[in-house]
Amino acid sequence: MFDFLKKLFGWSTPAPPVKHPTPAASSPPTPVASSPPTPVASAPRSDIHEPKPAPPPAAAPQTAPAAANGATRYVIVGAGPAGVIAAETIRKLDGDGDVLVIHGDDGPPYSRMAIPYFLSGHIDEAGTHLRKAKGFYDDRRIRVQHGRVEGVAPSDGRLTLAGNQVVPFDRLLIATGSSPIRPPIEGSDLPGVHTCWTMADAANIVRLAEAGSHVVLLGAGFIGSIILESLVERRVNLTVVELGDRMVPRMMNATAGSMLKRWCESKGVNVRTSTSITRIERARDAADNRDTLAVELSDGHKLPAHLVIIAAGVSANMGFLNGSGIKTDAGILADSHLRTNHSNIFAAGDVAQGPDFSTGGYSVHAVQPTAADHGRIAAINMTGGSASFKGSLIMNVLDTVGLVSCSFGNWQGVDGGEQAERVDEAGFRYANLQFADDRLIGAITLGRTDWVGVLRGLIQTEVPLGPWKEMLMADPHRIAEAFIARVGA
Ligand SMILES: Cc1cc2nc3c(=O)[nH]c(=O)nc-3n(C[C@H](O)[C@H](O)[C@H](O)COP(=O)(O)OP(=O)(O)OC[C@H]3O[C@@H](n4cnc5c(N)ncnc54)[C@H](O)[C@@H]3O)c2cc1C
Fold first, then answer.
1. What is the pLDDT of residues 316-328, one digit of tens each?
2. C-alpha 435: how far from its chain's center?
């Protein structure tokens, strides 16, 4: 399964070469990854899956200072997948440009998506690095500098790092990603309470999540459910607390979310839906004379915990743009070229609110495939090419203790649409297809890995299904046949 997900996400794979003015790198978002932007569970998520009908910002022409040697100064803030892919793409397209990537985390650029595999011991720390070859960045004359950006002055073509270092730029990409939300729960700042977002978080979790430890995970959304798998592999005594009435409520309907809950329970996980944490306090484990926590739930229960993990949603990292004039909403507003309202400033990845394939509006889709697409397309446009982004398709693939669940596009359906459903409760298999007229617009599956490409293809091509619509209404399991008939083998 690990290999299946790696392949699906193209994770750790360098971006394919891009030819200069590629007219439409717009291809719908790549292979989309695993889950989504799912706002996790319990807390307010302003970020993901929330289509915002914001209009593309109009870019105001800006004059940028020229570099002393005439080379274009490209500055990329953020060394996640969006930033690293953008840097690589720029280097391929502009051999002379000066490429600087600013990384706000410790260590080499890494993939947050790899953290669960680090937690479960499938990979070591080096395995999380986005690019593993020794000298990868130096060989490509990509400078990676550690630092935190605190301000951007678009008209001056400058940004400021903590410590007041000023960095000039001709073209700027903001790819600062997102950060986990910490709900205002009393005691959530105690030692033993962690988010799961950075390698530092991962190290804390590895230290505390020993076999047999009591762990409470707040949030059964996308990220929470991924972490859940790793914790099960660490053989902890796990309780998941989810405010919604089912698991992954932003990715699964009631039938699928409830089946997933039942599956997790069958694997020994205590799942408490429609529940929240009201308070966390210090306690002492008399048995092993160890500091612990007592976690108070909204249903009155109190749970012991050596570790509490908060996975309650994320929000875009854009506070340093206050006063910059760069337009933001749930993320930085970016048009189909991933350009902000300043013509030489671009945004990509979790921090960007870019085109949304499913709604035709502008959304933050905080998933790695979208970050990769954004980074590539922004880089083409930064180097003077013209590539437009057709929009990211919501596509979430999740492996929860061996059960793979997927949701695509408008999985909740649309007004006036129709749906087809097949439920196999005992076998933990489920298929739900959503149609608008005779087009497939969304789907949910459980217990299947073989339909990912087919469903994505049918949704993204928006191909009319013709007579296949009625055949799929009668038997949604014929989806692969429909794909071959309408899209081609
Ligand atoms: C545990 C976990 C599991 C995940 N699993 C999946 C999955 O299975 N599938 C999937 O599609 N997605 C998954 N994701 C989400 C995925 O990791 C993100 O969508 C992706 O990392 C976004 O890439 P990005 O480049 O936009 O931002 P990030 O990867 O978050 O990188 C942001 C960069 O910006 C830097 N930065 C932030 N603020 C500043 C600042 N002020 N100054 C300088 N630098 C700054 C950071 O240090 C970092 O270098 C997972 C995330 C987590 C945490």
1. 999 999 999 999 9
2. 26
Predicted confidence (pLDDT) per residue in 409-435, tens digit: 999 999 999 999 999 999 999 999 999
Residue 129 half-sphere exposure toward CB, CA atoms < 13 A: 14
Taking the centre of ligand 1 as the mean of its atom positions, its distance from the CA of residue 271, in whole angstroms, is: 27
Q: Is residue 391 part of a domain?
A: no
- CA dist 62 and 170 (Å) reads 10
Total-model pTM: 0.86
Atom of ligand 1 nearest to the CA of 317: 38
Which structural domain range is residue 452 located in? 410-486
Question: Using CA positions, which residue lies closest to atom 46 of ligand 1?
Answer: 104
Cα gap 259→252, rounded to integer Å: 10
Distance 136 CA to ligand 1 centre (A): 20
Q: Which atom of ligand 1 is nearest to the CA of 349?
A: 26
Q: Indicate if the pLDDT at residue 114 is higher than 80.
A: yes
Phi, psi of 482 (to 5 degrees): -65, -40
229 in the same domain as 148: no
Q: How far apart are CA 256 and CA 274, in angstroms?
A: 16
The neighbour count for residue 20, using CB atoms within 10 Å, is: 12
Query: Could you give the count of Cα atoms lying within 13 Å of 71 in the half-sphere of its Cβ?
Result: 14
Q: Can you give the CATH number for the domain in which 220 is found?
A: 3.50.50.60
138 and 157 in contact (C-beta within 8 Å)?
no
Whether residue 305 is found in the same domain as residue 231: yes
Residues 20 and 114 in one domain: yes
**Segment 219-228, tens digit of pLDDT:** 999 999 999 9
Residue at 39: amino acid letter: P
User: What are the distances in angstroms from CA 437 to CA 283, 295, 418?
Assistant: 58, 49, 8
H/E segment holding residue 473: helix 468-474
My answer on whether 172 and 35 are in the same domain is yes
Mean pLDDT over each residue of the chain, to the nearest integer: 87
Q: Shortest CA distance to 252 belongs to which of 442, 58, 463, 454?
A: 442
**Nearest partner of 347 among 369, 323, 321, judged by Cα:** 321
